[in-house]
Design brief:
The protein starts with a strand and ends with a helix. Helices cover 33% and strands 30% of the residues. It holds the Pfam family ABC_tran.
Amino acid sequence: MTEKILQVEQINKYFGKFHALKDVSFDIHAGEVFGFLGPNGAGKSTMIRTMLGMLTADSGKVELSGINMLAQPVITHRRIAYVPGDVYLWPSLTGGEIIDLLLRMGGHEHTAKTDELIAKFELDPTKKARTYSKGNRQKVALIAAFSADVDLYIFDEPTSGLDPLQELNFQEEVMSLKVAGKAVLLSSHILAEVEKVMDRLAIIRQGKIIEMGNLKDLQSIASLKVEARVQKDAQALATLSGVLNFEQKNDTIRFSVQHQDLSAVTAELAKYGLIDLKVAMPTLEELFMAYYRDESEEEHAK
């Protein structure tokens, strides 16, 4: 078992009577990328800001390598690199000056790695921050974060404003952190971004974690997508246990099926002159939307 870098236990946060975070608990190990998923307003940024001490937790505990983050923020912040979704910079300083300032504030130095990142992310470090687009402001913060040698990297919607090439560069650097044994918390509503790099994920809704695990395990309890070509009308398959969203157009049928019912359904398919068969795991986006749809249906049923 790898070292546990971050441990969050039973965090609650209220804004007046509004219960913004509800007993949020998770942990992140060394060499792990943890995806923190939810739409805007789900509580992702509130959790991160509470964890960092920007907001005060009403109850709960956060530890970084055994150190109480909520009680000792100065010590723990030097072991964390953080990039928010909206980066605000000193307008009169150049990008290069801000990168160096951010590094010094965290007790780090400008190294050859910093220069490599500036070139990789195609940032002009000589320009004043007031001239930067949103994407360039994000680059400044990302370069400073990736330049730092810390225990935990926290990225909250980090690629907002970046073009597709720079998003790939971001993913590549996150994978490098993983190989180096660092812990990464990646909060995002861009599911394709998280799916490519994460090891485990938590889905948060209305301030409460509704599911947590690795993608493979979560996929195993979700419906499989089936597409097949048959020689006969197969409408009767729609009545089988576990079959959902059945449709047939000419010789092509599509439907979803629960894992435990797959073998019985595929055996039944043979009766209809099976020509071709494709079975696919649900994507992270489909899994995510299924959880949100199920939660919404439960609320409406109350």
